[in-house]
Amino acid sequence: MKSLPKLIRRYVSILLLSCVLLLTLNIILLVIFFTNQHPNAHPYQTAQETADALKQSSEGRYMLSGSITYELKEDHVWAVLIEEESKQVTWHTDNLPDTIPHAYTLSDIADLTRGYIADYPAFTGTSRYGLIVLGYPKNSFWKHMWPSWDYDLIASLPKTVLIILAVNAAFIFLIYLVTNSRLLQSIKPIVSGIQSLPTGESVHLDTKGPLSELALNINKTSEILQAQNHQLLKKETARANWIAGVSHDIRTPLSMVMGYAAQLREDTHLTEDEQKKAEVIVKQSERMRSLISDLNLASKLEYNMQPIHAKQENLIAITRQVAVDFINMDVDEKYPIHWETDESLTLCPVNADAALLKRAISNLIQNSITHNEQGCSIYICVTAEHENCTITVSDDGIGADDEQINKLNHAPHYMSCDENLPELQHGLGFLIVRQIIAAHGGTTIIDHSPYGGFYVKITLPKNASETVTVQSGIKISN
Question: How many Å is the maximal CA-CA distance in the chain?
Fold first, then answer.
């Protein structure tokens, strides 16, 4: 269930990232909003600049610099100068509205400094000649008439903002958990069900909740897989039983054929040609018996019906014994066997079934003999590495092309090699070798021999948990 916490973390990460992105977006929008405000967003500063720029000539006339005058006209701003003692307007711009008074009381001045004059937002600047008042167009600025704030509130404003943001984030997260808790509860059994499908377990999920349709489909998939597995098991069992039954039923008539053929081969009353035909019958009958035995063994290994009695064995002794048996049978010396194992290497311990390993090695040697009727040399080598023991069997015979080797290395089943008899024998023999070695936790590789023929490499894991004493090639168990 590692995927469920990962899914939850993903959702939480998306939520947190969304909050950060939303906050960043809001800040960007605020910056854009404020940058797009009125170009003269500093009216108090403009009022003070106007007051500083106002000059009085020797004749007593007031003059304003051209740049300030141009700026005020561009923004449609009017200005008046209120004399400090008389509270009368002693100067004003040409665009002064008619509704603006020319005399003020202290109360009027107090009101306009924080508010409006005839609905015009008013802003003041101090001059040595009096008080400069700028009037901006109506609805251009909004002013607080009576602004007053508690000092402690202003001082703790950053902290307050952070607390509010934290409360908002926690509230959003709580809403997210509440709204998605049911969904997360529904995901957990669905994830478990999906993980159980490859194992062949039967899955029955509750079809209620927000993911009910998905749960229903998983249940249907499980039922289909169970039905398919059941049908496949029936077919495989029937095939295994058929192979076992045919193997058993053929043995008796085949034994009779072999017996009678052997008698005819030795019968001196038959002609030489008839005796050769009988010899062919005997050899082909022996090949049939070998094929039936291989087919039965392959079926048992495939369906795990062949018991493996594994114990500590010396791979060198097993391989040498098989080689010696074949040397003793090769009376014509058509298939000389060369033992290329380092003589200093006397022990290579593996945990294995000796009978099955002998069968695998025998199949490899017999394969070189069967497919090289004109004879060939067979080379056997056993090596020991840090964690593995390796057997290589190669010959200098006719070998095989790349396509055949690729097929033998990757053929999923011996029944795929039933197009012709020689290929079937080839594939079935190697299939048994692969099955035996795989049952022992090893690997089998088929390739071109450095001598020009066939090459097979078997690798088995070492087992050094027990000791094996070897003397003169004979295994002595402790």
Answer: 165
Instruction: With beta carbons less than 8 A apart as the criterion, state whether 377 and 327 touch.
Output: no
CA distance 73 to 234: 99
Residue 104, number of CB atoms within 10 A of its CB: 21
Question: Are the C-beta atoms of 127 and 56 separated by less than 8 Å?
Answer: no
Classify residue 250 by burial, with Cβ atoms within 10 Å: 0-12, 13-18, 19+. middle
> Structure tokens of 155?
């001082």
6-39 pLDDT, tens digit per residue, is 666 777 777 778 878 888 888 888 788 767 665 5
Q: What are the phi and psi torsion angles at 137 (to 5°)?
A: -60, 150
From CA 49, how far away is CA 57, in angstroms rounded?
Answer: 19
Q: In whole angstroms, what is the distance from residue 290 CA to residue 285 CA? A: 9
What mean pLDDT is predicted for residues 65-80? Answer: 91
Q: What's the whole-number average pLDDT of the chain?
A: 80
Indicate the DSSP class of residue 137: P
CA distance 395 to 340: 12
